[in-house]
Amino acid sequence: MDLSGLVNKAKNALKSNPNLIEKGGDAVDKATGNKYSSQIDKAQGAARKAVGAQDQQNQQGGQPQQGGQPQQGQNPEGQQNQQ
């Protein structure tokens, strides 16, 4: 496999699972003691844009979802609560 094939494979993997971008940024944040948080956040946004993944902050009302907690109005399976 050539380099462009490898890059395309990585882009497809990140596009289908953009949570990997968050996990990678969080790992770097932890390793650097949050010293470069704003730069890492910008890099995460650029990575999402580069692979065509939706921005989690735009999807979830301004805050990335942490810890697998259901969003307001959803049950633990991620489905809308019926009222």
Summarize the structure.
This protein is mostly helical and 83 residues long.
Describe the structure.
The chain is mainly α and 83 residues long. It has a domain at 3-51. The chain is 55% helix and 0% strand. The chain is built from four helices and no strands. The chain has helices at 3-16, 19-31, 37-51, 56-59. α2 packs antiparallel against α3 (37-51). The longest helix has 15 residues, at 37-51. The chain is elongated, with a radius of gyration of 15 Å. The termini are far apart.
Compile the SSE list and pairings:
Layout: H1 3-16, H2 19-31, H3 37-51, H4 56-59
Per DSSP E runs of 2 or more residues, the count of β-strands stands at 0
Order of helices and strands: HHHH
Q: CA-to-CA gap between the ends?
A: 53 Å
The low-confidence parts are: 57-70
- Principal-axis shape equals elongated
Q: Report the structural category.
A: mainly alpha
What's the overall average pLDDT, rounded?
A: 77
Mind describing the biggest β-sheet? none
Put simply, the count of helices is 4
Helix content: 55-70%
Percent of residues in beta strands:
under 5%
CA-atom Rg in angstroms: 15 Å
What oligomeric state is this? single chain
Which features characterize this protein?
about 80 residues; about 0% strand; elongated; mainly alpha
